[in-house]
Design goal:
The chain is built from 15 helices and 21 strands. It is globular, with a radius of gyration of 23 Å. It is α/β, with parallel strands linked by helices. Bound molecules: S-adenosyl-L-homocysteine (SAH), iron/sulfur cluster and FE3-S4 cluster. FE3-S4 cluster binds next to α2, α4 and α7.
């Protein structure tokens, strides 16, 4: 009887904050709930279950959760007056970092579940229904998690695939080692099975994910002729590139310390590896890099970029930057600008340092004033934005293969991705969704490229 009741369509609303790994986790949570009869809905108002998959990386990201919980509290109360129940779960990195605090501050939350424990959702929901108490599940059970996640069903031609979790680097500004736990790599076999399943569902592009994706290590698969020893990400990418139907492979986020020669060689040689690399440097001053515990200098980073460009000359580089880390002087900040000038980025993310409780940076002397951080961020973003615009404009006149991912805003338009991860708007028939076709780039807008299908351009000529 319980079975029959569970099968009656229930609904779940999942809001995702934070990085791509949270996007992946949200999709897997939806997959876990599907056999229990939950369909995904796109608003919380009538949902039986609401999951906030949260991010703790900066103070603002974490604060959003509490304001969202405030709104949900009202919806939940209104539903209760109508005799309906709404279960509220907080997942993700805020759940991990502030679980007990959430339970104390937000009594409408029924369940708190960390990023390495969400595979237990089915049992936890059953417990929540039985006990009506506050349930906290924040154990680090990464391997058990991946063993438990069922076969994936996906929509669309591009998908994320988490291959590595956690971080052992302990940059002094960052919460991730505390919220995601130690570095763990999934096995070659597990990753291959998931990638094959995605390809069989029409996925053309996979993005391999990890907080330190290039720290991935695995044993060569048993029985694979010629494959021996311990593999790094380069070998894994070459192995996945053999899967029929898979046309494009990307990976993020990489750490400069783990950018080994095997991966650089693969970037140069494996055509399915896309020419785009997100390699955060954070700052350009060696003093600040040291205080951040990054384990590399500005020079080693720049030398590495030169090596990568020698292997793959057309590579588009992307990075993350933090301004206003404790002790950052004007001269230190100028060194960041100089590094950016030297590297020339195709895209980048930049942030004001946010003091995170429990991290070494939070207690460091020389915290930088907010106004100063604002000014530095504005200067850095102006420079990065100019570089991005230059990179985009340099594509005009080129023919790029575009993977069409979704319909555009106008009828008859599709939106796709270039190899360099730029959005490309093209007039093309719906039947081309999910396929890759050559596009002549004709224009740039602030956030995208615009082009025409090459066959159309040729027909018109
Ligand atoms: N694992 C990745 C990044 C994880 S977090 C890496 O090592 O590069 C994504 C980005 O958020 C970081 O690269 C950093 O630029 C930024 N970030 C992390 N902690 C921050 C903090 N306390 N304040 C501001 N930005 C932060
Ligand atoms: Fe955070 Fe540094 Fe680990 Fe990246 S490498 S997740 S920035 S601690
Ligand atoms: Fe945020 Fe956690 Fe990702 S803190 S950036 S959701 S790893």
């Amino acid at each position: 009887m319980t079975q029959a009741r569970q099968k009656q369509g229930k609904s779940v609303f999942i809001r995702t904050y934070g990085c791509q790994m949270n996007v992946y986790d949200s999709e897997r949570m939806a997959g876990l709930l599907k056999p229990l009869g939950y369909g995904v809905v796109d608003a919380p108002d009538a949902a039986d279950l609401v999951i906030l998959n949260t991010c703790h990386i900066r103070e603002k990201a974490a604060e959003k959760v509490y304001s969202e919980l405030g709104r949900l509290k009202k919806i939940k109360a209104a539903r209760a007056r109508d005799g309906e129940e709404m279960v509220i779960a907080v997942a993700g990195c805020v759940a991990q970092a502030e679980g007990p605090e959430i339970i104390a501050r937000a009594p409408m939350v029924d369940l708190v579940v960390g990023p390495q424990a969400y595979h237990q959702l089915p049992e936890l929901l059953a417990r929540a229904a039985r006990e009506r108490g506050d349930i906290l599940a924040t154990d680090f059970a990464v391997e058990e998690k991946f063993d438990r996640l069922a076969e994936r069903e996906v929509d669309g031609p591009a998908a994320y695939l988490t291959i590595q979790e956690g971080c052992d680097k302990f940059c002094t500004f960052c919460v991730v080692p505390y919220t995601r736990g130690a570095e763990v790599s999934r096995s070659v076999d597990a990753v291959t099975v998931e990638a094959r399943s995605l390809a069989s569902q029409g996925v053309k592009e996979i993005t391999l994910l990890g907080q330190n994706v290039n720290a991935w290590r695995g044993g060569a698969p048993a029985g694979d002729v010629g494959a021996t020893g311990s593999w790094g990400l380069g070998e894994l990418c070459r192995h996945l590139a053999k899967i029929d139907g898979l046309e494009r492979i990307r990976f993020m986020t990489s750490h400069p310390r783990d950018m080994d020669d095997g991966l650089i060689a693969a970037l140069g040689e494996e055509e399915k590896l896309m020419p785009y690399l997100h390699l955060p440097v954070q700052a350009g001053s060696d003093k600040i890099l040291k205080a951040m515990n990054r384990g590399h200098s500005a020079k080693t980073y720049i030398d590495q970029i030169a090596k990568i460009r020698a292997a793959r000359p057309d590579i588009a580089l992307s990075g993350d930057f933090i301004v206003g880390f404790p002790g950052e002087t004007n001269a230190d900040f100028e060194a960041t600008l100089a590094l950016v000038e030297e590297v020339q980025y195709a895209s980048a993310y930049s942030f004001k340092y946010s003091r995170r409780p429990g991290t070494p940076g939070a207690a460091m002397p020389g915290q930088v004033a907010e106004g100063e951080k604002n000014q530095r961020l504005a200067r850095l973003q102006t420079l990065l934005e100019a570089q991005r615009a230059d990179f985009n404009r340099a594509q005009i006149g080129k023919i790029l293969p575009v993977l069409f991912e979704k319909p555009g805003r106008h009828p008859g338009q599709l939106i796709g991705r270039s190899p360099y991860l730029q959005s490309v708007h093209v007039d093309a028939p719906q039947s081309m969704l999910g396929s890759i076709a050559p596009v002549r780039i004709e224009d740039v807008t602030p956030n995208a490229l615009a082009g025409v299908l090459v066959r159309k351009a040729e027909a018109a000529a």
